[in-house]
């Protein structure tokens, strides 16, 4: 084997051994991550390799120019000389409790400590960035360009422009508005941050139109956007002033008047028919005894504060004999006129059926009456002669004229009554009693009951 061959063989063997040694011996660096701290606080950049036992280990600064500048080694610690080169790291220290650990500790971090640093635990190298935040002052809020105390005074239904300013933050923050801990997104106008030395100032406005229910609400301007520095908040209580809201009532001949106002109403008036002032008072509630004499009266009440005057009118005119509604009566709603139900023929049909059945009852009753009367006449010898038969038994022999009448009546099933047989003004019930037996009357009643039941079933 020649020299060249031998050299090539040795190189290959060395490279193989180095590769196997590197893979088998060293693992990646762990725990090194970007870190944020606040100006004046401590910070630590963690760097460890569980399988590092010996070899090169150091920290380098790659903030300037991108080229690593070593400033600390595991063997020598942090280099602090010459000052012109390493003076920046006067507050840096290494925490190397074991050969596998090389943490970098920064005490009372300064803005110049910000930067990107690399840790090398042979043969692996990783980088991390240190950020130093500046905690700014509490935000301030002005209203319509004027400084405002706490609480701030606003007028209901009148828009106001509130400006929030947060000064001295690094990095620049953004501003958010809240009312009673609920974020406001309408009417918010952010502005670009402006430099303030090593920090930034941020401002933004909120166009806000309060309502009377916002009185005593909590309005806040909060900073957001920093990692470690706590958010700053400017809380304010709203003093929303509004025209009095008046309530007027009438019960038991007493007029009552009250108001809800901010500031409180200083004058109240109970007025009749729009012009007649019957009582004035300064408290928030008052009453007046009133009994209507004649006609009707319109009752109203006025309340006045520094914002304006509110008026309320009782819903009903109070007239002589006025009856107050019950306490649980439903509230009035807009009057509506209902159309009458559409005409139908059902009533006419029912009436016709009733009439037919009543007529049927009367006809049946008269028919039964006439039939029973005729039957009785056949059994009573009113005309002709009584004679004796061959067997000695008596029998009735009608005369020729009466015999003819009986034949006619038999064919027609209705007998002609003589003048003496007429009811002579007696009622129908008396005729039944005089002419019919009890079973006959019961039969007629039974028939009528059946007809009535049929009528009820049809209806």
TrEMBL record:
* Regions of compositional bias (Basic and acidic residues) in chain numbering: 390-399
Q: Name one GO cellular component term.
A: adherens junction
Does the record's keyword annotation contain Metal-binding? no
According to its UniProt entry, the protein's GO biological process terms are:
heterophilic cell-cell adhesion via plasma membrane cell adhesion molecules; homophilic cell adhesion via plasma membrane adhesion molecules
Q: Which domain of life is it from?
A: Eukaryota
Q: Which SUPFAM superfamilies match?
A: Immunoglobulin
- Which keywords belong to this entry? Cell adhesion, Disulfide bond, Glycoprotein, Membrane, Repeat, Signal, Transmembrane, Transmembrane helix
Keyword Membrane belongs to the record? yes
Q: Which Pfam families match?
A: C2-set_2 (PF08205), V-set (PF07686)
Q: Which residues lie in coiled coils?
A: none
SMART domains in the record: IG (SM00409)
What are the transmembrane regions?
348-371
Gene3D superfamilies recorded for this chain? Immunoglobulins (2.60.40.10)
Membrane topology term reads: Single-pass membrane protein
Q: What are the start and end residues of every segment in region (Disordered)?
A: 379-399
Question: Domain Ig-like spans what residues?
Answer: 40-131, 139-237
Q: Where, subcellularly, is it found?
A: Membrane
PANTHER family assigned: FASCICLIN-3, NECTIN-RELATED
Q: Please give the name of this protein.
A: Cell adhesion molecule 3-like
Organism listed in the record: Acanthaster planci
**Gene this protein is translated from:** LOC110990618
